[in-house]
Amino acid sequence: MVQKAKILLVDDRPENLLALEAILSALDQTLVRASSGEEALKALLTDDFAVILLDVQMPGMDGFETAAHIKRRERTRDIPIIFLTAINHGPHHTFRGYAAGAVDYISKPFDPWVLRAKVSVFVELYMKNCQLREQAALLRLQLEGGGKGAVGGRESAGLLAELSARLAAVEEQAEALSKQLDDDSADAAAVATAAHLERKLTGLRRALDALEPGTGAGGPAVSPAN
Questions:
Q1: Coiled coil located at which positions (predicted)?
Q2: Is 61 a domain residue?
Q3: Which residues face 104 on adjacent strands?
Q4: Per the structure, how many domains does the chain have?
Q5: What is the pLDDT of residues 111-137, one digit of tens each?
Q6: Do 133 and 224 contact (CB within 8 A), yes or no?
Q7: N or C: which end of the chain has fewer CB within 10 A?
Q8: How many CB atoms lie within 10 A of CB 205?
Q9: Got the DSSP string for 157-221?
Q10: Within a domain: residue 198?
Q11: Residues 35/17, Cβ–Cβ less than 8 Å
Q12: Half-sphere exposure (CA, 13 Å, Cβ side) for 6?
């Protein structure tokens, strides 16, 4: 069973959190509430999230300060942040949001369909990265214990075939996602994330190909691209 992605919703107003849940429930992912910046940071200590929807105007620690803390932590710095704000102070205010690490900046009231579409892109990218990590873990097991004796050789060949098939499925899905991003004129941040995923897939494919019989499997392993 495929594990659902977690989406962190941060807003001090319960009615806003309820509205976000209503909009995003169609994605069928796990929605986690936080009513303050402090509560959001606490949730990020234990759980992994595909994307964070962060209200700018909050008492105490506002959205900008919360984002700054998120970006300072190694565990959470790469999580996409979408800022939500009910006010618009012009380009300077928007620039501050991007400078704080946001991948997008949406003013309220926002189009529910647009917000859902934007979030779904980052959820899909997150799921592809999870699949990629699984393939990399299997590949490491193969590198560490493959090719020991006749039985081990047969098991290695079977594992290689399974790895190759799984990786091919992820490659196909990533290619389709990249085409979708191009067609929809998606955010530059989403396109860049998809390109990063493709580079990692290419590195993993090279490492897997190097293990195939007759290609120098006993040589040094190729690490997936970062």
A1: 160-187
A2: yes
A3: 82
A4: 1
A5: 899 999 989 989 988 888 887 777 777
A6: no
A7: N
A8: 18
A9: HHHHHHHHHHHHHHHHHHHHHHHHHHHTT--HHHHHHHHHHHHHHHHHHHHHHHHSTTS-TTSPP
A10: no
A11: yes
A12: 13
